[in-house]
Write a structure and sequence with these properties.
mainly alpha
């Protein structure tokens, strides 16, 4: 059965809320979640300058050089160890600049 455009948007909004909720409860790595929410920005049927999604686009842009998510498997242990402090600092920073927006996405789309 083919999904309508409205159904697709609703599905993507639910995914964004689910990811954001996982980021808040710690079940999803905060930076991995930020990258996924950023990737959903154009899939949720909102203006491209939506404040909540823009926060994660900024986070994603600032951390794109770090070994996060599936790409970690391609990095050496030494490189991972070398970047670990920066990853931890980036998590702290990302929460400072996007925690409100993370909560907002949950509230907006977790109906």
């Amino acid at each position: 059965m083919k999904m309508s455009h409205e159904e697709y948007i609703e599905k993507q909004r639910k995914r964004a809320a689910s990811v954001a909720s996982g980021m808040l409860d710690g079940s999803i790595h905060y930076l991995e979640g930020a990258i996924e929410i950023s990737s959903l920005r154009f899939e949720v049927g909102l203006p491209e300058d939506d404040k909540d999604f823009l926060a994660f686009t900024g986070v994603s842009s600032e951390i794109d050089h770090l070994p996060i998510g599936a790409q970690r498997q391609y990095w050496s242990k030494e490189a991972l160890d070398r970047h670990e402090l920066e990853i931890q600092q980036s998590i702290k920073w990302a929460k400072e600049v996007s925690l409100y927006e993370c909560k907002s996405i949950v509230e907006r789309f977790n109906a």
